[in-house]
Amino acid sequence: MKWEVKELPDGRWGIFLCKKYWKFKDKPVMYSAAVTRDTAQRRVDRLNNPGFYSNDEKCYTVGMARADAKKKREQAKKEKAEAAKAKREAKKK
């Protein structure tokens, strides 16, 4: 998706989604408004090219934490089942 700066009727500057990405062709998508064009343009530059501002390599989301916890639970359950199986086999001998 790409964003662009357009002037609003009240004198502020709006950040809008480029027309080719609109879901409904008759309804523009506005992200936010800024007092000056320079501020709006800087924000658009960040939205269009987030490379420098991205912190993906350091980001640890709630979803990631839940997935890790689920993996640990499943691993513990698997180890418990294997231990029980080994115990049953030892009893048979």
Name its key features:
alpha+beta, 2 helices
Structure commentary:
The protein is rod-shaped and about 85 Å long. It has a three-stranded antiparallel beta sheet with strand order 1-2-3, with helices on one face. It contains two helices and three strands, in the order βββαα. β1 and β2 (13-17) form a beta hairpin. It has a domain at 3-48. The model has no long low-confidence stretch (mean pLDDT 89). The chain is α+β, with helices and mostly antiparallel strands. The chain has helices spanning 37-48, 62-92; strands at residues 3-7, 13-17, 30-34.
User: How large is the count of helical segments?
Assistant: 2
Low-pLDDT residue intervals, each spanning 5 or more residues: none
Helical content stands at 40-55%
Q: What is the gyration radius calculated from CA atoms? A: 26 Å
Number of E strands = 3
Q: What portion of the residues fall into strands of 2 or more residues?
A: 15-25%
* Alpha-beta classification: alpha+beta
* Terminal Cα span: 66 Å
Strand line-up across the major sheet: 1-2-3
Instruction: List the helices and strands in order.
Output: EEEHH
Overall pLDDT level: 89
Major sheet characteristics: 3 strands, antiparallel
Shape: rod-shaped
Question: What is the strand and helix layout of this fold?
Answer:
Blueprint (H helix, E strand, L loop, with lengths): L2 E5 L5 E5 L12 E5 L2 H12 L13 H31 L1
Antiparallel strand pairs: 1-2, 2-3
